[in-house]
Amino acid sequence: MFPRQPQPWQSPPSLQEPLQKRNPAGPWVRGVCAPPCPLTSSCLSPCLFPPEEVEDASEPTKRDRSHLESTLKLNEDKPADDFSGALQRLRKIYHTSIKPLEQSYRYNELRQHEITDGEITSKPMVLFLGPWSVGKSSMINYLLGLDDTPYQLYTGAEPTTSEFTVIMHGPKLKTIEGIVMAADSSRSFSPLEKFGQNFLEKLIGIEVPHKLLERVTFVDTPGIIENRKQQERGYPFNDVCQWFIDRADLIFVVFDPTKLDVGLELEMLFRQLKGRESQIRIILNKADSLATQELMRVYGALFWSLAPLINVTEPPRVYVSSFWPQEYHPDTHKDLFLKEEISLLEDLNQVIENRMENKIAFIRQHAIRVRIHALLVDRYLQTYKDKMTFFSDGELVFRDIVEDPDKFFIFKSILAKTNVSKFDLPNREAYKDFFGINPITSFKLLSQQCSYMGGCFLEKIEKAITRELPDLLGSIGLGKKPNVLSCDITGCGETPKNRYRKP
């Protein structure tokens, strides 16, 4: 005989009482609770909840984005400013007045910063740095509104970003491999090829059709993991970061309340940021996860950790908020977080609005450094020629000059004669390495860098620094049309005089 199958227990109507029960995924919902099953413990769940109500209650509320769109002017239909004429003029100034001296004295081997046409015409770059899983990728998704779309960057509690990801504008969603980006001379990333193929495999570009990306480019970086050695990455991580830092218009260093410790890799990163303090914005993300008292303690601990790394008189600007699309947690300072977020967005919009002025100032700063480098090499060479005699050993003479340049007043003579600021002088130790691979005899004196038709290299770069670039910057600031700027107005088309040529 077959054993009798147990029948499900039916509770009488009097026991089917409504009961308020808290759903773990949402607010209190109403369900029907039944007594335990008398025959088997797996016949029915004690409390049955309507699945439709549970699903609706568990959906998180999205934050309003109206302040973001208004601050970044994403709703405006006016076309972007056309700076094509100014960019063409800037490119011409660089190639005719700055690059000849830069190549003649091999400035790129000292600073390893080669300026390409793609970099001159590129959009402002915003760089995201910081420890792993602090919300860098989530912040980019939030700024661009990419959450729950096919375009969103992958995020998670574990270290998720292992590549340098460049998010830029394109007509449709498209992924570009790093090898392709480095081979495309029209982009500003072709110099990255010098870091090797292992790095190019860790470089990826994503084109997204978004209005904000028409005016700016975002760069997401791998999170800093303090227990990881440089050689384990397979490429020079700090050198790559330095390349992006040198070209970034705005640098967001992101932290969260759980990752405030400073290790060797983060300390090295802040050394690389030295001199760029005006472009650094420190962000304490996920601030709505803390109570008020805890937030104050975390804020103080963050400054305590970063104080030895930022050697400036003024403290850096720190933004405290939560940059993701979900609503702020209840019982937190929502108004404060919203004001902090708007302040950060205004900083970002300011960089976008001043992109042409920043580009001209960057090229002028580069020209000043090239000029100082050429003057120093010329002074090294002149000292070498003065100290050389018929019986001198050229190698020993120049080694003495390089080891102790102050003995021969090389740097002091530059300050005395050429109106150069002592704060712009490069490190003396850098020239030991520079002349180690570039023999001094391979250079010419500045007095010999002149031609009848082209003029003198030094006079051309000085004219670019003192006249051409300031005039171009002034035309942008006064609201003039950049494309009407010509040599007839600025006088930049005059043939430079050669003071070394006999009349």
TrEMBL record:
Segment Disordered: which positions?
A: 1-27, 53-80
Q: Where is the composition biased (Pro residues)?
A: 1-11
Q: Which domain of life is it from?
A: Eukaryota
Name the Gene Ontology molecular function terms of this record.
GTP binding
Residues covered by the Dynamin-type G domain: 120-361
**InterPro entries the record matches:** Dynamin_N (IPR045063), EHD_N (IPR031692), G_DYNAMIN_dom (IPR030381), P-loop_NTPase (IPR027417), TRAFAC_Dynamin-like_GTPase (IPR051943)
Q: How does it sit in the membrane?
A: Peripheral membrane protein
Coiled coil stretches, renumbered = none
PROSITE patterns per record: G_DYNAMIN_2 (PS51718)
Record's subcellular location: Sarcoplasmic reticulum lumen; Sarcoplasmic reticulum membrane
Organism this protein belongs to:
Athene cunicularia
The cross-references to Gene3D superfamilies, in alphabetical order and at most eight, read:
1.10.268.20, P-loop containing nucleotide triphosphate hydrolases
- List the protein's name: Sarcalumenin
Q: Which GO terms describe its cellular component?
A: sarcoplasmic reticulum lumen; sarcoplasmic reticulum membrane
Q: Where is the composition biased (Basic and acidic residues)?
A: 59-80
* Keyword annotations from UniProtKB, A to Z: Glycoprotein, Membrane, Sarcoplasmic reticulum, Signal
